[in-house]
Specification:
This is Aspartokinase. With about 400 residues, this protein is of the alpha/beta class. It is about 35% helix and about 25% strand. It has 12 helices and 18 strands. The structure holds aspartic acid and magnesium ion. Magnesium ion (MG) binds next to loops.
Amino acid sequence: MRIVVQKFGGTSVANLECMRKVMEKNKKILDQGIKLVVVLSAMSGETNRLLGLARQWSKNPDPWETDALVATGEQVSVALFAMLLKDNGIRARSLLGHQAEILTDCSAGRARILGINSERIMEYLEKHDVLVVAGFQGCDIRQRITTLGRGGSDTSAVAMAAALKAEMCEIFTDVDGVYTTDPNICPKARKIPRITYDEMLEMASMGAKVLQIRSVQFAKKYQVPVHVRSTFSDEPGTIVTKEEEGMEEAMVSSIAYDKDQARVTLMDVYDEPGVAANIFAPISDADIVVDMIVQNPSREGRTDMTFTVPRGDLDPTLKILERIKTEIGAPAVVHDAHVSKVSIIGVGMRNHSGVAAMAFTSLKNEGINILMISTSEIKISILLDEKYTELAVRTLHETFGLDRSDAT
Ligand code: ASP
Ligand code: MG
């Protein structure tokens, strides 16, 4: 049995007219004799409306009841859509998370999928041509309804595709693919035809607006090809896939940026075993994610420790440091909340040298000062003053040839 999974986001199911467009997309697949699993989000704005209700009702909404509440958004869209398909003579039915036996762990609001009863779904597919599955929701072992975190329908769709060994998971959305950078700040940004899972993961800050990052991790683990494309056009979008020959030819595939950054420096802490642990353990216990870290000897027996945290976590971080300051021997803590991180991403970097030097030179030519640098195999991240973000992105985009249409 040939199977394709198609996922449609909130703006694609916002009203009857949009749903008709969705049905047209379904028909193109059905006409090829392929069975369809259609995963839907709630109609646009609905999840926020429901969360708002929870906050009106309770100062501290119970997380389990919140999940039971927000999951209704997807229940509405799948029922309405299945109704439309049936009216048009298509053999379809809706399935909620627990009916599709999407088993998750027991964490309300950010549950992870543990398994899907694929045999049961295959049985349903014998009798129906389209199964309309509620995204974003599952059920835990105690029969509690769970949700997968904002944007979680992407992950539902990829998990379905993995469980059913579908040929493709198409994610239909209101953008037409993944771009070489944010088109809002760089008009020369272009749609990327193919990108690897790893590059997409590294694009987290930008890419996450297009796909829930967890869905990409899932796709990578089970090698599900994902096609991100627009509901409102027939143009191909971006295929997220495993690395293939030829993909390494382009040195750099995209430039990402993240303005949600703050920098903290602990000056002159003791240079001895355990100091880093003593600094970062309490920060991680507070669920704060530290990103770039640089340790640099300042004078005999002393070292400076600089790192970045999400801007919203700066205050709690400073409070923690205040508490442990004496223990680690830090005479001063300085911070800067107006920094941003610009990243150059590309699997091709593995085989090309000189990417870092090229990036630094182009920033120098614009008079942009680099505050911190961190690298991974396929990414170079540069921390800079927030006010230079747009300029840096545009400059790097041009330097690495991404403005040109033959670059990727
Ligand atoms: N409806 C959920 C949300 O708004 C899940 C999704 O759309 O993917 O986050
Ligand atoms: Mg989304």
